[in-house]
Amino acid sequence: MGEVLPSPLVYVHERSGLTVGSNTRDSAGRRLPRMRRFGDYGYLPYLFIAPLVVFIVVLSLYPTAMTLIESFFNVNPLNPPVRFNGLQNYRDVFTNPTVNFSWVNTAFYVLFGVVLATLLGVGFASALRDNFRGRAIVLAILILPWALPGVTEGIIWAWIYNANFGVLNSVLKSLHIISEYQVWLSSNRVATVFFIEVVQVWQMTPLATILILASLQSVPADLYDAARVDGANRSRTFFTITLPLIRPGLSVAVIEAVIMSLNIFDQVFVLNGGAQTGSSIMLQTYNISFLNLNFGQGYALSFIAVLVTMLISVGVLRMIYKKVEY
């Protein structure tokens, strides 16, 4: 009889030095090399992940821990020394009417931002799903608002909203929609929040579009062909095939919109300054910490904002996200 050769899979394992286990043998009864486990590589895997761990600890976990600790102390250069005051900072924050006013505004920011960014993201992603001439150029133009800093966007839209020579007033008056130039910001609370959030939606929509577009492109075309054969129209196809299958990407897009809307600051600061009508919770944190120099309350308020962001994000994830298998 000729020599019994190992299977191709065993041959590959022999060449790479990897097999399933230490007791694995080939068809001739020869012991094959053991598959390497994580610990067999020594410290190499830990060296690879060390930079990421250091990055997360230094820029995320450590500042969060220090914020939590300092929130229980009176940290105020105008009222030294630094001393422990328990939950007093949290009591002061919760009973501050200005802070509560800003929380309501922030809720409006989140509502407007999440709804508009998600709807526009789904719409643009659906339009860009199929290839067409100039699609790459459209995608490049679409991503530009997301790449701009928030301060730059605020300056651009301040010119658009200007009550004396703004583009918005000029266009609406030329179309005879308004009879005279309007003051769009600071005159009405809800209107101010809405117009400021439009600026951030302009920034958030490209990211939502890209995330949802990636999910759309992963949906098999065979499903749409089968639905077309069954006589399903576009609306039925969207709600029975597209929407359920893009839920992973949609959930990420919604969470990103929630986080950005809850933490809106640049656009509010540039467009509305310190006016109370459009104040957000991040602007209020800035005012308490750097204008009033009450860093203890600022720490407390920022930590509350972190908790609220985490709770809402987890809630959105549990509500929308669903594992998809084709």
Structure description:
- The chain is an all-alpha fold and 326 residues long.
- It has two domains: 36 residues, no CATH class; 229 residues, MetI-like (MetI-like fold).
- The protein contains 14 helices and two strands.
- It has a two-stranded antiparallel sheet.
Keywords:
326 residues, mainly alpha, MetI-like fold, 2 domains, two-stranded antiparallel ribbon, 14 helices, 2 strands, 67% helix, 1% strand, disordered N terminus
Shape field: flat
- How many domains comprise the coordinates? 2
Question: CATH fold name of the largest domain, please?
Answer: MetI-like fold
DSSP helical segment count: 14
Please name the CATH architecture of the largest domain.
Orthogonal Bundle
Q: Work out the strand percent.
A: under 5%
Q: How far is the N terminus from the C terminus? A: 48 Å
Strand order of the largest sheet: 1-2
Biggest sheet details: 2 strands, antiparallel
Low-pLDDT stretches are 1-22
Number of strands: 2
The residue fraction in helices comes out at: 55-70%
Q: Tell me the CATH superfamily of the largest domain.
A: MetI-like
**Oligomer class:** single chain
- H-E order: HHEEHHHHHHHHHHHH
Tell me, what is the CATH class of the largest domain?
A: Mainly Alpha
Q: Tell me, rounded to a whole number, the average pLDDT.
A: 84
- Secondary structure class reads mainly alpha
Radius of gyration, in angstroms, nearest whole number:
28 Å
